[in-house]
Design goal:
By secondary structure, the protein is α/β, with parallel strands linked by helices. The protein has 16 helices and 11 strands. The protein has helices at about 5-10, 10-15, 20-30, 75-85, 90, 105-115, 135-140, 160-165, 190-205, 235-240, 250-255, 275-290, 300-310, 315-335, 365-370, 400-415, and strands at about 100-105, 125, 145-150, 175-180, 210-215, 245-250, 265-270, 345, 355-360, 380-385, 385-390. The strands form 2 sheets. It has a 7-stranded mixed sheet, sandwiched between helices. It has a 4-stranded antiparallel sheet with strand order 8-9-11-10, with helices on one face. A hairpin with a 2-residue loop joins strand 10 (about 380-385) and strand 11 (about 385-390). It is globular. The structure holds pyridoxal-5'-phosphate. The site of pyridoxal-5'-phosphate has 12 residues, from helix 6.
C-alpha cells in the first residue's frame, strides 16, 4: 500500500494481512471437488450440513449454521454497500469506496479500526461527550489516549474550532472520531456544522497532516429535525483530500433494532484510493477478524440478508422511525410548554438518535439520579460528565410528560434539602 494511507496505519496495521494461502486458500481451491475434505465442519452422509434438530427448532436453512467467510457473506456485503449508496445518494453517488467488511457489530468494528490505526501513545481526538466504551476500546486495549475538546460552542453549535486546534497540534498523523447522532447527547452536525467540519479537516490535510476520520454511525438515519444532514459524513469526507481516510463503522444494531444479533460493517473511503488499496484495507480488516473471532455469526448475517431483501423492510423501518420521532417531538413540546422546568435543568442540543441530555441546575447530577430511582419517582437515567442522559428510545409516548415532570420535581426537592 502506498502513502499517504501507509503512513496512517499503526505498526500492527502495517503488518496485518489476510492469510489467503494456508487452510483458507487450500479450502477455496478444493471447492467443487467430488469429495472436499478440507474444512473443519461436519456433513451428513448425504452431504448436507450436520445440525441437531433441537438447535434448528425454527427451521432455518442449514447453510445458516455453516462458517461465514472472514470478510463476511458476499451477498450481505454487496447489499450493505448498495444500501449505503441508497441512504447517502447525494454525498456518495459516483464515488468509489471499499466493499464493507462484516464485523461483530460496531464495537468490534471500532476495535478493528483501533488495531489498524492506533499505536501505543497515539491520540484520538474527539468531543468531550462520547460513548464511554471508547475508553476500553482505545485506551485500555490499544494504549491510545483520548484527547477531547468541548463538544459545543456557547451558541450550541458543534465546536469545530476546538477540533481543528487539536488536529493542528504536533505530529503528522492524526486520528479523529466523529459520532453522529451522538451518544450521549443525541446531536447530529447541522448542515452548517458539517460544512465547517469539512473545511477544517481540509485545512488540516492541506497542512500536511495525515488524518484518519473514524465515523461511528451507530445511530445513522435517526434524524428528526430539518437543517440536519440525513446522510453520513462519510461521503463528504472520503473525497476531500488524499491525506484524509474516512473509516465508517456502522450496522443494523441500532438502525434495525437488532442489538443482540452482533453484525456490523467497516468501510473505507479516501480520495484517489485505488481498488488495490481498498482491497488491501479490506484484507487487513478481514485478517483481524480471522485472527480474533475468525468470522461473524452466520445466523445473524442470514437473518439480515433476508430482511434486506424483504419488500416490507423500508416500510417497517419507517414505522419504527416514526415511533421514535413522535417521542422526540413530544419532548420538544413538553420542554417548550413547561417553562418552569428551565429552572431545574437545561436541555443540551439534540436533534437525532436514541438519547437527549439535560444539565441539572444547582444540584449534583449523581444525587439527582439516586433520588430519581426511589419509590417516589421510579425513574432510571444515566449520569455522565455532569449531565443526565435520557434514552427516550425506551420511553412510551404517554409516559414522557410524567417523566419530565418528575425530573423537575426531584430537582426542586433536592434543592430544598
Ligand atoms: C456511539 C455508539 N457506538 C457504538 C455502539 C455499539 O454498537 P454495537 O452494539 O453494534 O457494538 C454504541 C452502543 O451503545 C454506541 O452508543
Amino acid at each position: 500500500m502506498n502513502s499517504p494511507l501507509e503512513a496512517m496505519l499503526s505498526k500492527r496495521g502495517k503488518r496485518m494481512y489476510f492469510p489467503s494461502a494456508g487452510i483458507l486458500g487450500q479450502s477455496k481451491e478444493a471447492v467443487g471437488s467430488a469429495v472436499n475434505a478440507t474444512i473443519g465442519m461436519a456433513f451428513e452422509e448425504d452431504a448436507s450440513p450436520m445440525c441437531l434438530p433441537c438447535v434448528n427448532s425454527v427451521g432455518l436453512p442449514l447453510t445458516s449454521f455453516l462458517y461465514a467467510p472472514s470478510f463476511g457473506q458476499a451477498g450481505l456485503r454487496t447489499a450493505w454497500s448498495e444500501m449505503l449508496l441508497a441512504k447517502n445518494k447525494a454525498s456518495l453517488a459516483g464515488k468509489a469506496y471499499s466493499l464493507p467488511v462484516v464485523t461483530s457489530a460496531l464495537t468490534h468494528g471500532l476495535s478493528i479500526a483501533g488495531y489498524l490505526f492506533l499505536d501505543e501513545g497515539d491520540e484520538i481526538i474527539l468531543p468531550d461527550l462520547y460513548w464511554d466504551n471508547y475508553d476500553l476500546l482505545f485506551e485500555e486495549a490499544y494504549g491510545a489516549t483520548l484527547t477531547t475538546f468541548p463538544m459545543f460552542t456557547k451558541t450550541g453549535a458543534f465546536n469545530v474550532k476546538g477540533m481543528e486546534r487539536l488536529l493542528m497540534g504536533d505530529g503528522d498523523k492524526k486520528v479523529v472520531l466523529l459520532n453522529f447522532p451522538n451518544n450521549p447527547t443525541g446531536y447530529t452536525a447541522t448542515h452548517a456544522d458539517e460544512k465547517a467540519i469539512c473545511a477544517a479537516l481540509k485545512r488540516v490535510a492541506k497542512a500536511g497532516k495525515k488524518v484518519v476520520v473514524l465515523l461511528d454511525d451507530a445511530y445513522f438515519g435517526l434524524v428528526y429535525e430539518p437543517g440536519v444532514s440525513t446522510e453520513s459524513m462519510f461521503g463528504a469526507l472520503m473525497d476531500l483530500h488524499p491525506n484524509i481516510l474516512a473509516v465508517k463503522l456502522d450496522g443494523p444494531t441500532k438502525e434495525d433494532y437488532v442489538w443482540g444479533v452482533r453484525v456490523g460493517f467497516i468501510t473505507f473511503g479516501a480520495k484517489g484510493a485505488t481498488a488495490g488499496q481498498y482491497g488491501a484495507l479490506e484484507a487487513k480488516a478481514a485478517g483481524i477478524v480471522r485472527g480474533s473471532i475468525s468470522n461473524v455469526s452466520s445466523l445473524g448475517q442470514y437473518l439480515l440478508g433476508k430482511a434486506y431483501s424483504s419488500p416490507d423492510y423500508d416500510r417497517q423501518k419507517r414505522q419504527k422511525y416514526n415511533t421514535l420521532k413522535k417521542r422526540f417531538d413530544r419532548i420538544k413540546k413538553i420542554l417548550a410548554k413547561h417553562t418552569a422546568y428551565a429552572s431545574s435543568f437545561v436541555a443540551m442540543p439534540y436533534n437525532s438518535g436514541y438519547f437527549m441530555c439535560v444539565k441539572p441546575i444547582g444540584v449534583d447530577p449523581e444525587a439527582l439520579r439516586k433520588l430519581l430511582l426511589t419509590e417516589k419517582y421510579q425513574i432510571g437515567v444515566i449520569t455522565l460528565s455532569g449531565l443526565i442522559r435520557i434514552a427516550f428510545s425506551t420511553i412510551p409516548l404517554d409516559k414522557l410528560d410524567t417523566f419530565f415532570a418528575r425530573i423537575h420535581a426531584a430537582v426542586q426537592e433536592l434543592r430544598k434539602q
